[in-house]
Amino acid sequence: MWFTRVSLHNPVFATMIMLAFLVLGAFSYQRLPIDQFPNIDMPVVVITTEYPGASPEIVETEVTKKVEEGVNSIAGINALTSRSYEGVSVVIVEFQLYVNGRKAADDVREKIGLIRPTFRDEVKEPRVLRFDPANRAIWSLAVLPDTAARPEQLASSQSGAPARQLSAIELTNWADQVLKKRLENVRGVGQVNLVGGSKREINIYLKPQALEAFGIAAEQVVAAVRGENQNLPVGAIRSLTQERIVQIDARMKRPEDFQHMIVARKGNVPIRLGQLADIHDGAQELESLALYNGQRTLLLTVQKAQDENTIGVIDGLNKTIAEMRPTLPPGVRLEPVTDLSRPIRVAVSNVRGTLIEGAALTILIVFLFLNSWRSTVITGLTLPIALIGTFLFMYMFGFTINMVTLMALSLCVGLLIDDAIVVRENIVRHVQMGKSAYRASLEGTQEIGLAVLATTFSIVAVFLPIGFMGGIIGKFFHEFGITIVAAVLISMFVSFTLDPMLSSVWHDPSIHPQGIKPKPRSLYDKSIGRVTGWFESATDRLSDIYHDLLEWSLRHKLATLGMAIVIFVTSLMLVPLLGTEFVPKADFSETTISFNTPVGSSLEATEAKARQVEAILHELPEVRYTVSTINTGCPGQDLRQCLCPPGRSQGPKAQCGPDVRGTARALAAGAGHDGHPCWLARSSWREQADRIFSSRQRPPGTRTPFPDRATEDSSYSRPGGPGFQPQARQAND
User: What is the pLDDT of residue 484?
Assistant: First the structure.
């Protein structure tokens, strides 16, 4: 082949090409994002429209149906699902997998813009969101009281007076204006949400008797507060030398200023707000809550920006928190809770370790069979060049380092060195025939080249179509197929260029004429050579046994054919016994429980139920801590850690499952004691839910909102009541 001749005539050029693969691959490896699974574009768009105060029937008639009719004409829709709740309309548009998610969202926004004028004035602006699995929170942080702080640690460094601890409103302001801003400045952070905060609010409590006495309606008070408490631009005053901007600075500076606000006039007498209402500087009504071990806390959840590295973002967040600890307000400590980089690190580390072990064992087996360390080096160089060079193509195609791509590299480790072994063995055979190293390298490669090409392209023909399969499985295995094809083609190129070149310039003196075995002369021959010699003798005996079996098979053709048929049929019969699942089971010591209270339940009632659930969970000795979020709008998405304690970690972590399932049964039994029904749900895999809720007598008033139509990725929750997600983390071994 022409590139083999070029490599033999220009050994430096061939070496530089291999070094280019290594250098570019190493730089690409450093720039590749690390994630657990490939970045999948799910063409699903969710349209949320709020209609305050409207019943589900009115929402369906005035909003949902109009939205459905408006978006139904978009091309590529696979399914259109709508749900009408009290005051909220949710329409889910699922497109075909070949549709680009961003284009689909733009098309939906265009259609919503056309039907927006047909809505009533009370209907708020529809929100169009594109569903993206990567938009979930990857990290969360709890702001907790530091009960371990000593009194002297709370002293002010300037005045020496004891520094008081922050109130709930002050702590919320600090978390919102200081902590949140620091986290948002971390590279790769897309959004930071604050859960359970008590924001400051000026509360105006009207006096009905005073309103009736002065003859003023509540609407007049609202209009006055809205109109008076604002800064308004007036215009500009220009002169020959300068221009001044004039504005009305009417925004209240202190809560006491509201008492002097004029609401109306009766004759020439002004009626002020202080005469009509009581004004209090207090906290805003809570809309969401976060509980840490049953106590209220502030919880900050972080979402990464699109296409950012999860591990890199979380490392930056942890570094920022470590830098902020010395400057925290008195009596405050920060506790990281959710960390989605942990399962990614564990999964990728396991696959990476398997890849390294497979490569080392492959080179060891090659050394034992070739019985030559030079031949092992020549053929073994194919592995690092092909593996590291593959990272260059992964970077060019926009792939990530994940379980799928690393699994592809692990699978093809044995395939990568096959071509090099075949080429090297044929070159050695030509050397044993008495040819020079250069001639043996050229003729040996040309002789075996067609067979190596056929083998390589047959592998490409198998895995390349996998990279272009359709459906959701095809999206996951796109990177799998392309990665294997790139690695195999690089290994073929190396076996046709580097291996012949090294065989021609780096002759192995241990190669002897065929059939002649020299006596041990060097220290290598007397040490490691004895092991390889014994292995060679063992393979010769195994070859004799195989020769005898082959002779027997040729003499008994019908019996051999019958055995093959029996094995084939038996294998087909065992197929139904194999289980099926979307991804392999993984235990990252985390458990999620989703709980929804009945329609109309208050935030305080849901908080009480959450405390009951956490109390049940803390009865398990494995639980390290629990974190619950209430009414955050994303039920069933939190994670929690579950590590078995010493004495119970002898077997797999799955043995903790019966305790969790028993807890779920107790939770379901206790949730309905007050006569109100509640709903239990799961947010992990369907199998876990089936184990919790299958074939047992449920207590009265306890239900599950997941009928048979639920799927693993379902985030459906019972509407109407606040939901919470407790996070139980168990003690380390």
Answer: 92
The arithmetic mean of pLDDT across residues 434-462, rounded, is 87
Q: How confident is the model at residue 631 (pLDDT cuts 50, 70, 90)?
A: confident
Cβ-count burial 505-536 (b if 16+ within 10 Å, e if not): eebbebbeeeeeeeeeeeeeeeeebeebeeeb
Q: What is the dihedral of CA 541, 546, 552, 553, to 10 degrees?
A: 180
Both structure tokens of 225: 């507060």
Q: How many CB atoms lie within 10 A of CB 114?
A: 9
- Min mean pLDDT across 107-116, 192-201, 449-458 is at 192-201
DSSP states of 304-353 as a string? EPTT--HHHHHHHHHHHHHHHGGGPPTTEEEEEEEETHHHHHHHHHHHHH
Per-residue pLDDT, 152? 46
pLDDT at residue 653 is higher than 50: no
CA–CA separation, 484 and 401 (whole Å): 14
| CB contact set of 480 (below 8 Å; sequence gap of 6+) | 404, 405, 407, 408, 463, 466, 467
CB-based contact 592:667 (threshold 8 Å):
no
What CA–CA distance (Å, rounded) separates 29 from 404? 16
Distance CA 591, CA 668 (A): 16
**CA 126 to chain CA centroid, nearest Å:** 28
The pLDDT value recorded for residue 523 is 64
Which residue type is seen at 724? F
Task: Give the pair of three-digit tokens for residue 689.
Answer: 């839910």
- Taking the alpha carbons at both ends of the chain, their separation in whole angstroms is 60
**Angle of the 471-505 helix axis to the 437-463 helix axis, nearest 10:** 180
Say whether 704 sits in a helix, a strand or coil: coil
CA distance 28 to 48: 41
Bridge partners (DSSP) listed for residue 591: 728
Alpha carbon distance 47, 61 (integer Å): 16
3-class secondary-structure state, position 36: coil
Phi, psi of 347 (to 5 degrees): -65, -50
Nearest by Cα to 402 from 356, 349, 353: 349
What average pLDDT does the segment 509-518 reach?
Answer: 57
- Identify the pLDDT of residue 395: 92
pLDDT cut 90: percent of the chain above it: 11
Q: What are the tens digits of pLDDT across the range 298-320?
A: 888 888 887 788 888 899 999 99
* pLDDT confidence of residue 676: 43
At 502, list the tokens. Answer: 């090294």
Under a CB-based contact definition with an 8 Å cutoff, are residues 114 and 66 in contact?
A: no
Model confidence pLDDT, tens digit, residues 209-250: 888 888 888 888 888 888 888 888 888 888 888 888 888 887
Residues 475 and 37: their CA atoms lie apart, in Å, by 11
> 512: pLDDT confidence band, cut at 50, 70 and 90?
low
Query: Which residue would you say has higher pLDDT here, 572 or 472?
Result: 572
Question: What average pLDDT does the segment 432-439 reach?
Answer: 82
**Identity of residue 386:** A
Q: Which residues contact 146 (CB under 8 A, 6 or more apart)?
A: 328, 330, 331, 332, 333
Residue 419, class by beta-carbon neighbours within 10 Å (0-12 exposed, 13-18 middle, 19+ buried)?
buried
- Which DSSP symbol is given to 673? T
Beta-carbon-side half-sphere exposure of residue 249 (alpha carbons within 13 Å): 3
Question: Residue holding tokens 């360390």?
Answer: 373
Domains of the chain: 2-31+344-508 (1.20.1640.10), 44-131 (3.30.70.1430), 139-155+163-199+292-339 (3.30.70.1320), 200-225+257-283 (3.30.2090.10), 521-578 (no CATH), 591-730 (no CATH)
